[in-house]
Amino acid sequence: MTDTASAPTVDADETIDLLQELVRIPSPYFEEHEVVEYVYEWLDERGHDPEYHHVSEPDITEYEGDNVVARLEGSDPDAPTLLLNGHVDTVQLVEDWEEDPCSGRIEDGKLYGQGACDMKGGVASIMTAFDALADRDLAGDVLLTVVVDEEGPYGLGTDRLIRDGLVDDCDMAIVTEPGPILAQEDVDNPALLLGARGRFLYDIEVHGRAAHGSQPETGVNAVVEAGRLAEALDAMETGDHPKLGSGSVCPLFVEGGSQTLSVPERAHLMVDRHVVVGESREDVREQAADVVDGLGLESAVEIGFREAPADDIRYGPYVTDEDHPLVTSLADATRAVAGVDPDYGYFSSVGDFNYLGDRAGLPTVILGPDGENIHGAGEFVYTDEVVEVANIVADAAVRLLD
Description:
By secondary structure, the protein is α+β, with helices and mostly antiparallel strands. It folds into two domains: 4-197 and 317-401, Aminopeptidase (3-Layer(aba) Sandwich); 198-305, Alpha-Beta Plaits (2-Layer Sandwich), CATH 3.30.70.360. It contains nine helices and 19 strands. The strands form five sheets. The chain has a six-stranded mixed β-sheet, with helices on both faces. A four-stranded antiparallel β-sheet has the order 4-5-19-18. Helix 1 packs across helix 3, helix 3 packs across helix 9 and helix 7 packs across helix 9 (383-401). The model has no long low-confidence stretch (mean pLDDT 96).
């Protein structure tokens, strides 16, 4: 067992200063160039030889951007490699802020700003942990990936890491998303989230029959039938999992019809479908088809899924074993740093961790600083948790890779 006294300790002031600078740079998804440049320069100034990793998706989004990657090389090529992953993009700036949404203001142990909690706090944690680990002669490698477009429709930054093989030599991953606020159950930091549900998006077309609006009985109203279908899907039974809980269904929108005095002949329905381990794409499609069959609609219904840049882009569910060395090392590090046992939980929604835990097949743990109002006005992160997470990550890395 590694001597915990020899584990590196991050500089608390530097960590919060870094976070404040990250928050002060607006970075809605697809608009991350300035913050990416800042991350690169911060790492470069400290001698970590960062590299830009280009992200391109020309067909649907026409997006061009860059991840930042850096590696600490260990002394033993047979030792494991630990991936530290976080995203610097945010949702679009919310208009309801009563102050500058990128102020970085600190008050009562809370740092405010769009993306402060989701997840620039976590990015600051892994950046300063990575910097502290550089002074340690580790046997294994540490790969830091600060990525773009997690909040966008396809998670293009981490998708590109996987697609280009940058994580092929990694053995495990830590993603510092805020965990407790989006956990399936009530947990408090320090908390280790050991898995997450997955997600599909039904994209459904309903084809009715047009008629004059004064004689609706002569047509088939696609909007009405789409509404019936949305209600039935909302009540659909889903799978259950002992760790991840239940799947869920949430109709997101129904649209159709535009002409006055005409029965709408077409309607479009988008439905969120969160899934647990054991629910495949084929299962999800069949479940919706069974609902359609049971309704006896007059309309023709085409059940598809949201268009994606590639067929293998998916948010699959995953669970990491509690006995995996990554989990036990993080638990021991939590006790050493925070003096308490960690809570354990599972994430209710999706993110880049799904790509790593499912698509890349990496044992993946979510451990991040918590806050409130994520994606909304008044978002903040607890500054002491940002520092605590950085120290836990650094301590666990030494346990795993020394």
